[in-house]
């Protein structure tokens, strides 16, 4: 109940901890580490335990939450291994259940199918009868003659259907929570993958959810800290940006602490000062 209450306070959404098998958390982490075979195995276990995708979020690690979409993650893990036939089935199932099409970061991969496309059936070439054999008649230099070309009927002219002047309604904008979860997912993926510049860029997106804005500031600080270490800890301007990001994090998330399973100990020590 405490975990559910915490999720409600942070994100305003119903967490589905009880319905999410533990393999989902492990599978998401394996996926972010690009361990495709392990992610596939864990997501298959997850689907076997609960195949119903949900807009609810599951705590993956500390303050890292992920939408419960096991078919989607299984499809992408399969696609990364070139198992396109199975991947296409899982993409279709995730699309059918209706959660991922409404979240742009997920919908983008649904549209691309991560490069997997169904194989088109080869078309049979049309049979053309151009020469007919004549088994009778006077012998000559050739026993074949051209078959008469069939008459082509005159085209039937029809009036085009009247176009509707009704303007379709604009697509509904994603809810702030769903948009925040999708963006933070991309932030975590970039950070775990070691793309610190991309982490900073994505984490600089404005957030309408204060808790999400706080987490984004933490990942910005962590990414800048990594660049600060890579540069020999000599960039004073970068150091000031780290301090500013951590100040934002503590302001928006006063009772939180960086998760040691994601962030290095030296950064956690700095953030805890």
Structure notes:
The chain has 273 residues and is mainly alpha-helical. It folds into two domains: 2-115, Tetratricopeptide repeat domain (Serine Threonine Protein Phosphatase 5, Tetratricopeptide repeat, Alpha Horseshoe), CATH 1.25.40; 178-271. It is 51% helix and 5% strand. The protein has a two-stranded antiparallel ribbon. A hairpin with a 2-residue loop joins strand 1 (57-61) and strand 2. It is elongated and about 85 Å long. The chain starts with a helix and ends with a helix.
Give the CA-based shape.
elongated
> What is the percent of helical residues?
40-55%
From the structure provided, what is the oligomeric state, counting identical versus distinct chains? single chain
* CATH homologous superfamily identity of the largest domain: Tetratricopeptide repeat domain
Largest sheet: 2 strands, antiparallel
Q: How many separate structural domains?
A: 2
Q: Going across the major beta sheet, what is the strand order?
A: 1-2
CATH level 1 class label of the largest domain: Mainly Alpha
Index terms:
two-stranded antiparallel ribbon, Serine Threonine Protein Phosphatase 5, Tetratricopeptide repeat, 273 residues, 4 strands, 11 helices, elongated, 2 domains, disordered N terminus, mainly alpha
Task: Summarize the model shown.
The protein has 273 residues and is mainly alpha-helical.
